[in-house]
Amino acid sequence: MTDKPFLYVVVCAAGVAADVSKLITAAQERDWEVGVIATPTAMNGFFDAAAVETGTGRPIRSAWRRPEDPRPFPAPDAVVVAPATFNTVNKWAAGIADTLAVGTLCEASGLGVPIAVLPCVADALAAHPAYQDSVSRLRGMGVRFADPYAGEGERDGERGVFGWERALDLLRNG
Ligand SMILES: Cc1cc2nc3c(=O)[nH]c(=O)nc-3n(C[C@H](O)[C@H](O)[C@H](O)COP(=O)(O)O)c2cc1C
């Protein structure tokens, strides 16, 4: 048990997820207690699950609990989605809660819990009108989006710096 505020870190299946431990460490340094919820696809080798569980001291959640099981995490004081994929952003905006990650996001926005999003979406996908509508709909719900990040291929295959701490700044500054 701890008095620290509880942060959910929702991890989607984008290449930069491999570095999600940077966000966890930065959040802990800012005095958050952290629990990770990953999409089922993200659990399929996109990051080091064992390292994350060691770092947070808690199991990663990816599937719904059974009805008789207790809630594994406390209620969130804030939520970060990083990296946020094209797929998860669109499902969240549309209310398609077919993963624990999206279901948690839909519920957290309804409860008014602060949510910060670090998208990692290629320019070609970000140009899709459904994605633009999704971002605008979620912004209208009060969700805080960081600037776009296109991932690999930005400059001749080079990847810019993802800037994990932007999520924590967004929670602090709104
Ligand atoms: C190596 C790899 C990297 C990927 N990177 C991204 C990415 O940066 N952004 C994205 O939106 N999708 C990316 N994808 C595609 C997603 O994994 C795919 O759309 C998946 O359905 C997303 O599931 P999720 O939103 O439930 O995590 C990548 C796929 C692979 C195999």
From TrEMBL:
In terms of InterPro entries, this protein maps to:
Flavin_trans-like, Flavoprotein
What SUPFAM superfamilies does this protein map onto?
Answer: Homo-oligomeric flavin-containing Cys decarboxylases, HFCD (SSF52507)
The GO molecular function terms of this record are: FMN binding; phosphopantothenoylcysteine decarboxylase activity
| Domain Flavoprotein residue range list | 8-138
| Domain of life where this protein originates | Bacteria
Cellular component, GO annotation: phosphopantothenoylcysteine decarboxylase complex
Any Pfam family the entry gives: Flavoprotein
Which GO BP terms sit in this record?
coenzyme A biosynthetic process
Supply the name of the protein.
Flavoprotein
